[in-house]
């Protein structure tokens, strides 16, 4: 069991990590749930990191995957307790381009909803891998570290997801080019 008293300097280092990575983690969380919940989970992520500071491997060059791992676990717990997963994922369907005409926006929103439904059908581990790659922009290695699986498993999960998404007409994947030819 980790000590309830972090070592000297841990709070200052986590403050630096928050300044460096907090916004990126918050943006990822906000895409997965409402902003208030995302902010709460972000705060809880850094509190948890401080409490578990001794479990962080100082030989790692970057704390970002470790922090994303904590945030992802807290987010899953949030969904289980609040049963908000479906609502949170559907919020992504809002078009970011307001200058499109209504027909284009509707087509875009329908395409996003279709992709979100496909993501909902994926195993949670596969969906988490896809979202960490696409939304958090983590590398394969960082995803492996955040989720505690080998890099080969990350590659396999992303390949399975791409295969499933290729069947969705009219969608694209910025990481793999057009998904439907």
UniProtKB/TrEMBL annotation:
Pfam families: Sigma70_r2 (PF04542), Sigma70_r4_2 (PF08281). PANTHER family: RNA POLYMERASE ECF-TYPE SIGMA FACTO (PTHR43133), RNA POLYMERASE SIGMA FACTOR RFAY-RELATED (PTHR43133:SF25). Belongs to the sigma-70 factor family. ECF subfamily. Gene3D superfamilies: 1.10.1740.10, Winged helix-like DNA-binding domain superfamily/Winged helix DNA-binding domain (1.10.10.10). Residues 19-84 form the RNA polymerase sigma-70 region domain. The keyword Transmembrane helix does not apply. This is RNA polymerase sigma-70 factor (ECF subfamily).
């Amino acid at each position: 069991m980790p000590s309830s008293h972090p070592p000297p300097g841990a709070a200052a280092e986590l403050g630096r990590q928050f300044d460096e990575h907090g916004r990126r983690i918050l943006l990822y969380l906000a895409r997965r749930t409402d902003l208030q919940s995302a902010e709460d989970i972000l705060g809880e992520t850094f509190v948890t990191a401080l409490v578990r500071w001794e479990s962080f491997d100082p030989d790692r060059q970057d704390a970002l995957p470790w922090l994303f791992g904590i945030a992802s676990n807290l987010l899953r717990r949030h969904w289980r307790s609040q049963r908000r997963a479906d609502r949170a994922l559907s919020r992504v369907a809002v078009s970011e381009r307001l200058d499109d005409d209504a027909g284009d926006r509707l087509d875009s929103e329908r395409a996003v909803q279709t992709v979100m439904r496909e993501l909902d059908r994926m195993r949670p581990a596969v969906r988490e891998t896809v979202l960490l790659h696409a939304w958090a922009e983590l590398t394969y290695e960082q995803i492996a570290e955040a989720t505690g699986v080998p890099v080969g498993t990350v590659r396999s999960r992303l390949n399975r997801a791409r295969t499933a998404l290729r069947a969705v007409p009219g969608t694209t994947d910025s990481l793999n080019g057009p998904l439907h030819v």
